[in-house]
Amino acid sequence: MIKALATFLSMAGVPAVLRHLRGPQSLTILSLHRVSAEEDYFWQPLHPDRFEALCLYVKRHYEVVNLRDLNLLAAPQRPQLVLSFDDGYQDFMEFALPVLVRHNLPANHNLVVACLNGDYTIWTQRLNAAFNQARQQQVHLQLTIGEARYDLQRYNNQWMPFYLAVFKALLQRPRLMREEVLTELETLVGRPPAPRMMTWADARSLANHNIEVGSHTYYHDVVSTIHDPAQLHQELVDSRRVLAERLQQPIDVLGLPNGQNSPHLQASIREAGYTCVLEVGDRGNALPLASATAPPCLHRINIVDELPSLAQLRLEVLAMKKNLPQSLSHK
After folding, report:
1. Cα Rg, the chain, nearest whole Å
2. 78/114 same-domain check
3. pTM of this prediction?
4. What DSSP character marks residue 35?
5. Which of 7, 146, 166, 199 is the 20 to 30 A CA-CA neighbour of 178?
6. Ranges for the NodB homology domain (predicted)?
7. How far is the C-alpha of 259 from the C-alpha of 280, rounded, in Å?
8. Residue 48, Cα to own-chain centre: how many angstroms?
């Protein structure tokens, strides 16, 4: 029913009406991750065909830009849009990059330093893989996170609500506690091979295709949970320095892992020297960007694998929720 309604509304021109109402003085940033034909119950990658349909749509209706180019378009004729990727999965090189090159579209990609160094899997991917293993093996999971007990049976053996509850709980916990839970899970169900990640050679090649590289921190930790200055420095400052040195290019964008922000991060972000910070708020941004002494925080709209008509409608509805980006100094 929802798919049929979305198709009807798209064919009726509702997305065009929403773009007209919003006007050209807006910035929409899409948050993307994996582009692959693989099947994954808990985190379905965006199918390459649907990614190409998305690219065709935004190319037709938006001025697709990099974040560094925003000041060069002071009076845009069309609303601006950034295709923003996180994590640095190898399937970006295999499936997403050829589409971007074919349609001459720029993009932003925020990379995790430890993944580029090799033999490191970010915690969200480990959680996802372990849950897929548990579901396939029909393991009755019971997990303790802090003082709370999470039991699959209490969720009526419904895997997705159970997974989301555990994921949200781990977002609020420090790295050591997350590591303990993940180790317990992997001991119980095994640790399957992780998806391949980009190499440093891959990352260096991105500049040849107008892909703007940003930092997605050093270890993809939940930086809003970090209060140790040295650990924050590594995630925010060292990640930018290492990327800039290894890639021989400026690194001005910080993509916050899982979109998690916090007021106590502002000093470390200023120290690191980023010019903009990306979080996930499922809304658009108004232009011109607010002037501030700290880097502005820009909202992103999360893109999932769904019918193109539904993706287009959801994009335009959420982009209507634009507001002036808030500086970290105002949070």
Report:
1. 20
2. yes
3. 0.92
4. B
5. 199
6. 79-331
7. 5
8. 17
The length of the chain in residues reads: 331
Categorise residue 289: left if φ over 0, alpha if ψ from -120 to 50, beta otherwise.
beta
Q: Quick check: 79 and 62 in contact, CB under 8 A?
A: yes
Domain endpoint, select from 139, 163, 189:
189
Quote the number of domains for the chain. 2
Distance CA 300, CA 131 (A): 27
Do 31 and 66 belong together in one domain?
yes
DSSP secondary structure letters along 119-174: S---HHHHHHHHHHHHHHHT---EEEETTEEEEGGGGTT-HHHHHHHHHHHHHTS-
- The strand ranges marked E within the chain are 26-32, 63-64, 80-87, 107-111, 142-145, 148-151, 211-215, 253-255, 276-280, 285-286, 297-302
Cα(111)–Cα(253) distance, integer angstroms: 10
Residue whose tokens read 């582009």: 35
Distances (CA, A) of 142 to 43, 151, 155, 157: 21, 4, 11, 11
- In the chain, what percentage of residues exceed pLDDT 70? 90
Q: Give dist(CA 191, CA 177) in Å, integer.
A: 18
SS3 category, 211: strand
Distance of alpha carbon 94 from alpha carbon 247, whole angstroms: 20
Which residues constitute the domain of residue 159?
Answer: 123-189
Last residue of a domain, one of 189, 217, 244: 189
How many Å apart are CA 256 and CA 55, to the nearest integer? 24
Q: Are residues 111 and 226 in the same domain?
A: yes
